């Protein structure tokens, strides 16, 4: 069944009074990171952070920023490209394995695409060992835009005996019509096993002419991905002028770009047929018009911020430099029933949003002197 977003009127009502009081404040852990993109939490309490120009660093709990790790592959760091998302393997405490995605240049440097790699963090956390690329978006193109590049890992279950990785992929901006074609990875969510193989159940694995990694298609530039406690994948993606979306990618489903959209092209013309829905395409769970430019995404499972936060979805805003708190009809599921805009005086682009093992929410801000922040309940 298609889920329809809140109407613009309801969306506006949900925001009334949202900024009237702050429920949280921020503590700065570290500042001076160059365009940080993703943060992961090491077992000793330190943080592992990627910087878009192509560096990975350890940030100590006291805020000391370590030197760049050795072993990071070359990245195409122009425009929106570079070293992007990072997640630790579910068994990191035992195997020290991690996954990261980045803009991978071609041999001649003229084209690029999003790639997913696995590596082992050395015991002293100074380098990446055994780096291996397990997926490369095809085809490579000449573009510095719309790499997507958020990773979500699902551990083995009774239904799926192998760990799988979901990776969001942008349509590279100039190739948006590719999002509706199954012979490429542009504008897709892909699903691969942790070793890069094709896991059982991928919807197009036996479809002639389709790439077997594809999980869902018709996406624009997804830069948020998280698994709910029940294993459901949630993503969000940038619209053009308006029409940012939250979607629940189902296997084989078409999410409409660029046939339909709640936004408009940058020259103010209609997207596709000018409609917001079309038979055979899925409706978003939620949409933002005007666009907030979302990045980063996390479910709150901790009670650090009170019981009423549990099950909420948090999304960072690059454009309006705030944190969106989305309350759902039921914890971790259902449509969005209320949106609050937090940290509206932050003044920094929110790039990543994560819940740490200590139950606190952490943010990265995307600036030449970006910050790692911790959210704490206001007194």
**CATH classification, class level:** Mainly Beta
Shape: globular
Number of helices: 2
Radius of gyration: 19 Å
Strand elements, count:
23
CATH architecture call: 6 Propeller
Structural class, judged by helices and strands?
Answer: mainly beta
Instruction: Let me know the CATH homologous superfamily.
Output: TolB, C-terminal domain
Strand order of the largest sheet: 1-23-22-21
Any overview of this molecule?
There is one protein chain. It is built from two helices and 23 strands. Helices cover 3% and strands 39% of the residues. It has a four-stranded antiparallel sheet with strand order 1-23-22-21, with no helix packed on it. The protein starts with 7 loop residues before the first helix and ends with a strand. With 379 residues, it is mainly β. The radius of gyration is 19 Å and the shape is globular. The protein has one domain: 6 Propeller (Neuraminidase).
